[in-house]
Amino acid sequence: MMELLDVFNEGGPFMYAILCLSLFAIGVIFHKMYLFFFKLRLSEDEVTQAILKSVESNSYARAIQFCNAKNHPLTNILKAGLIRANRTEKEIRRAMEIAAAEELPPLKKGTVLLPQLSNTATLLGLLGTIRGLIVAFSGMEGGDAVKRQEALSKGIALAFRATFFALSVAVVMILFYLVLLTKETRMKAKIEHSAAQLVDVLVTKNKGSVSQPRM
Questions:
Q1: How far from chain centre, in Å, is Cα 193?
Q2: Are 12 and 131 in contact (CB under 8 A)?
Q3: Secondary structure (3-state) at 41
Q4: Global confidence as pTM
Q5: 173 neighbors 121 (Cβ within 8 angstroms)
Q6: Which pairs from 76-79 meet CB under 8 Å and 24+ separation?
Q7: How many degrees, rounded to 5, is the angle at CA 131 between CA 129 and CA 132?
Q8: Which of 22, 10, 16 is closest to 173 using CA atoms?
Q9: What are the pLDDT digits (tens) for 86-113?
């Protein structure tokens, strides 16, 4: 532990700055992982089929009740369409688009920070590398050969440590960003597909009810 602390102390402010960035990124990653893999964990296909089945059997109240039981972007968006089930296709789509505009942006919140944090960590590592080289070449001025060699070795070590630490942090951030982005993209695609299915069913039923002859 003391050796690690010595490495950071020798590395200077840039090492601590990279550490702070990594801790912030860890917080973002844990929050998004919890959101996608636990809080919003849902079988979108099963939920969609259950809602569509209720709609096809004219059980709109049951479909809305099913949506109310699950606080999820998918169910909230579908509920917006169900509430306006007897309206025109344009009104149904508009209601679901408004709901999507409220529900989908929070899914992206935090994820977009990871590439920026990764780039910042890389730049801080570059500054740390330059600082190490400055230390190395500054030590070459005057003194005997042994001291110059020690200064050169110390400066190069500082430069490599900063580079290694920064790149390690940046790579981890990007890997988690790709995982979260993939999860986010898949969830959004499933929500859009489910919304399109519901609109199609509602419009078909509305047209069918209008075309039925009056007795």
A1: 21
A2: yes
A3: coil
A4: 0.82
A5: yes
A6: 76/102, 76/103, 77/103, 77/191, 77/195, 78/48, 78/51, 78/194, 78/195, 78/198
A7: 65
A8: 22
A9: 888 899 999 999 999 999 998 888 899 9
